[in-house]
Amino acid sequence: MSHNATESVESFRARARTWLAENMPRLGDRPQSGTGEDDTHEWERARELQQRLYAGGFAGICFPEEYGGLGLSSAHQEAFTEESGGYEMPLLLNVPSFAICSATLLDTGSEEQKRARIGAAIRGEEVLCQLLSEPSGGSDLAGLITRAERDGDEWVLNGAKTWSTSAYAADWSLCLARTNWDVPKHQGLTMFLVPLKAPGLTLNRVRMVNGSLEFCEEFFDDVRLPASAVVGEVDGGWTVASRQLFHERNAVGGGSPYVSGEGGMRATPHPNPLDMARASGRAADPRVRELVGEYLALKTVHEQTVGRVTRAMATEVLPPAASSLLRLLHAEYAHLSDDHTVRIAGAGIATGAGTEPGATGYAATGFLMRQGVSLGGGSTEIARNIVSERLLGMPREPAPDRGVPFNQVKRGS
Ligand SMILES: Cc1cc2nc3c(=O)[nH]c(=O)nc-3n(C[C@H](O)[C@H](O)[C@H](O)COP(=O)(O)OP(=O)(O)OC[C@H]3O[C@@H](n4cnc5c(N)ncnc54)[C@H](O)[C@@H]3O)c2cc1C
């Protein structure tokens, strides 16, 4: 099918509505999954659904045509997302594969990297993940110690990464490593495209408190990479990482144009206070109504703020650092939603009633991951620092390593 980049949003919406009804499975036709241990079938399913979208001409809506997308606007994407609400969509691929990694490659990758990796992701053939955080800490990202050293035309990677979402299901990663120890920390980093199956790369899955094995840790022992693996410039990795963090905060905050379909990273039901009020039969209780009202008010503020800040960044009224506003508000909203859901559920949540799939969904297991939203995409405290320093112009926090060559910076290990 050929696409017309000038197609109106309404014409695109109408075409999408017809196509979705004829080609995509309706939600509810298939049992919903939880946070089970072996989710291989979920990833296979996501790739298969993405392949359907691609074959139907509805994949990569905001990615340029030369890299396999449709080259359409975020308004087209929003229309498609609204229309696809009642259908099973490959939501697992949204974050980080499309909204963070492919978006970053689009901004900073070579032509070859963009054609190969973005194209394969849009066709549903490959998945990307991000390897940034290290066991020594994630907030001070520029202080990372995984090293890449030149050996002839190749690079040799050694070190460790952790908390990498869905790396076990991915084919390629964006991996930040130190390539120069003689300059201040931000100036000695390089971003690499690393295949997860590279010889010398060991990947372990990490069990979370809710039983999920979604996170991974990776160890690099003399992993050899070609010169073409460098994304952007050698020692220019902070520029790439900054773009990646921008896309991550945008994605986590709900403002990414590269997300297709509604829902979180996982296609698991996550009840909100309104669902819980109805499911528990307490919707008439004045105290419950107050909690639901508070939730709905913040939900509206969140949605309005996403639209306003996203438009302001697109028109450069606000700098990219404003994505931290979205990231921050999303955590506040998600915390209030989880907390009020648990308050309304009452003792039922402890006895397991709230953990059943269906109307009440996975309220208890969802609550166990409450803190995740204030860490993923950079922590809430770091988001507050960015807002205060880069948007409000407040003084920068003291940093004893500022301007100091990294090999002279005191470190714990
Ligand atoms: C759901 C989720 C998904 C994730 N996905 C990925 C992924 O795909 N790839 C990846 O690389 N990482 C990923 N992460 C890791 C995430 O980026 C880190 O958890 C985050 O950057 C914080 O790093 P840390 O956990 O090492 O905490 P630390 O950096 O050790 O921080 C510990 C605490 O100290 C606070 N703190 C640190 N420095 C300051 C400061 N200067 N001022 C004030 N407070 C400070 C932090 O806010 C935090 O509360 C994910 C995390 C979560 C929860």
Descriptive notes:
It is a single chain. The protein is α+β, with helices and mostly antiparallel strands. It has three domains: 118 residues, Butyryl-Coa Dehydrogenase, subunit A, domain 1, CATH 1.10.540.10; 112 residues, Butyryl-CoA Dehydrogenase, subunit A, domain 2; 123 residues, Butyryl-CoA Dehydrogenase, subunit A, domain 3 (Up-down Bundle). It has twelve helices and eight strands. The strands form two sheets. The chain has a four-stranded mixed β-sheet. Strands 2-3-7-6 form a four-stranded antiparallel β-sheet, with no helix packed on it. α4 runs antiparallel to α6. The radius of gyration is 22 Å and the shape is globular. The protein starts with 8 loop residues before the first helix and ends in a 22-residue tail after the last helix. The site of flavin-adenine dinucleotide (FAD) has 20 residues, from β1, β3 and α12. Flavin-adenine dinucleotide binds next to β1, β3 and α12.
Topology summary:
Blueprint: H1 9-23, H2 40-56, H3 74-83, H4 94-108, H5 111-122, E1 128-131, E2 147-151, E3 154-165, E4 172-178, E5 189-195, E6 201-206, E7 215-226, E8 230-231, H6 237-253, H7 273-279, H8 286-314, H9 323-345, H10 348-351, H11 363-368, H12 380-391
Parallel strand pairs: 1-4
Antiparallel strand pairs: 2-3, 3-7, 4-5, 5-8, 6-7
Helix pairs in contact: 1-3, 4-5, 4-6, 6-9, 7-9, 8-9, 9-12
Bound molecules: flavin-adenine dinucleotide (FAD).
Flavin-adenine dinucleotide (FAD) binds at residues 96, 129-133, 137-139, 163-165, 372, 375-376, 378-379, 381-382, 385.
